[in-house]
Amino acid sequence: MAKPIKDESHKDTSAREDILQRLFDTVQSRRGTDPNLSHSARLMARGRNKIAQKFGEEAVECLIEAVNGNRKELISESADVLYHLIVMWVDSGVSPEDVWSELKRREGVSGITEKASRPKEKLG
Ligand SMILES: N=c1c2ncn([C@@H]3O[C@H](COP(=O)(O)OP(=O)(O)OP(=O)(O)O)[C@@H](O)[C@H]3O)c2ncn1[C@@H]1O[C@H](COP(=O)(O)O)[C@@H](O)[C@H]1O
């Protein structure tokens, strides 16, 4: 039998948001600095397509580790994905608060309920 659903939305997530916020602030501070001294600066200097390509590559590496059941490597690749996602946010002018707000807006709404409420596509 499936486990009952628990509401976890009351839990304090500030520590998790903190490290991502700090990483975001660091990457943002690297914008326009010497690409020889900062990997983030080098990546942003190479442009949005390169940033997106690197994010995609890291995401694929991450899913390969998940599919293969390699927990340790999945953790490492997940950190790479989050770093490259943050570089993409900085480059695109998206702040962590923008994303947290969207997640907060969705809190408590089951994906199943949300999907069922979408307008049905007309056939034919
Ligand atoms: N979390 C990370 C992080 N994760 C991965 N990487 C780097 O990402 C690079 C990925 O290497 P790849 O060979 O895959 O990519 P590439 O060098 O772009 O090469 P190509 O694929 O284009 O050939 C490596 O150099 C990693 O060290 C990171 N670089 C920086 N950070 C964080 O960002 C902060 C600022 O770093 P700098 O911008 O370098 O000062 C650091 O203090 C860290 O907290």
From TrEMBL:
Belongs to the PRA-PH family. Its main location: cytoplasm. GO terms for cellular component: cytoplasm. This is Phosphoribosyl-ATP pyrophosphatase. It holds the Pfam family PRA-PH. The lineage of its organism: Bacteria, Pseudomonadati, Pseudomonadota, Alphaproteobacteria, Acetobacterales. GO terms for biological process: L-histidine biosynthetic process. Gene3D superfamilies: MazG-like (1.10.287.1080). It catalyses: 1-(5-phospho-beta-D-ribosyl)-ATP + H2O = 1-(5-phospho-beta-D-ribosyl)-5'-AMP + diphosphate + H(+). Its EC number is 3.6.1.31. It comes from the Bacteria.
